Amino acid sequence: MSESESESDTDTQPQAPNGMPPDYLSGNKTAWQDKAADYIDAAETAWDSDQPYWGVFGIPDTHTRLLPEDMSGLHCIELGCGTAYVSAWMRRRGATVVALDPTPNQLTTARRLQQQHGLEFEIIEGFAESVPLPDGSFDFAISEYGAALWSDPYLWIPEAARLLKPGGQLVLLTNSALMMMCAPDYESDGPVGEQLLRPYFDMHRIQWPDCPGQTEFHLNHGDWISLFTANQLVVERLVELRVPPGAETRYDWADRDWGNQWPLEEAWVVRKAVV
């Protein structure tokens, strides 16, 4: 059986500290099942690209250096892979890759593009909060949005740390804390602006009024650092993405001029301590 045919579909639900499945899982999964078709064109474009690019403005990896140039010999996992284009980029750089996501419709696109491009790596249907793989399995883990936005960090960050070998690296990219403070409640109210609309502290769960049933997760910088430290993850870099002049995006909420002055998105690069 090839790597692309080796699938591990698990019904195991991750457990919150109270022993119950997190209440946001089904809502977020249903939402992404429903809108998966809207992301097929973007997936095909990303899979066609030999060079990684990041975020809503497609900032080239030459500006951010989130992926090593040579990943030969590295065992890598993408948490909340969606259509798995980041996994494809890692595979092209020589890595052995596992791509994980809870959304069947997204994974259908991923498997089709995997066959189309002739790239073999394992795809698993499952949640980043509870990955059915052994401790210390990976040298490198990454989440561009995916788990970084749609999974509770107090559940998925400990799981990512468990999966990493000592010295292994985790990269996560999500909306910046500053952007979250300035984004209006309704997308119809226009793009992110220059006024603070919500507090910096106690973000954690965000439920937008015009996106019922969906839950995003955001932390301020101090809370991220405390969470990393509690899980023996040492911060190496905080990359605040700056939108270059002339960049384009499909997202109405993302303003290019705003993103050239302040970070719309940020990427944390952390490494598991060698004890």
Chart the SSEs and their pairings.
Layout: H1 25-35, H2 40-48, E1 53-54, E2 59-60, H3 61-64, E3 75-79, H4 85-92, E4 96-101, H5 104-117, E5 122-125, E6 138-144, H6 147-150, H7 153-163, E7 164-175, H8 177-182, E8 204-206, E9 216-218, H9 221-230, E10 233-241, H10 256-261, E11 265-272
Parallel strand pairs: 3-4, 3-6, 4-5, 6-7
Antiparallel strand pairs: 1-2, 7-11, 8-9, 10-11
Helix pairs in contact: 2-4, 2-5
Q: Describe the sheet with the most strands.
A: 7 strands, mixed
Could you name the CATH homologous superfamily? Vaccinia Virus protein VP39
Q: What is the CATH topology assignment?
A: Rossmann fold
CATH architecture: 3-Layer(aba) Sandwich
Q: Mean pLDDT, as a whole number? A: 91
* Unreliably modeled segments: 1-13
The CATH C-level name is: Alpha Beta
Q: For the terminal residues, how far apart are their CA atoms?
A: 37 Å
Total beta strand runs: 11
Order of strands across the main sheet:
5-4-3-6-7-11-10
Report the sheet-strand fraction.
15-25%
Order of helices and strands: HHEEHEHEHEEHHEHEEHEHE
Secondary structure category: alpha/beta
Estimated helix fraction: 25-40%
SS element count, helices: 10
For the CA atoms, what is the radius of gyration?
Answer: 18 Å
Morphology: globular
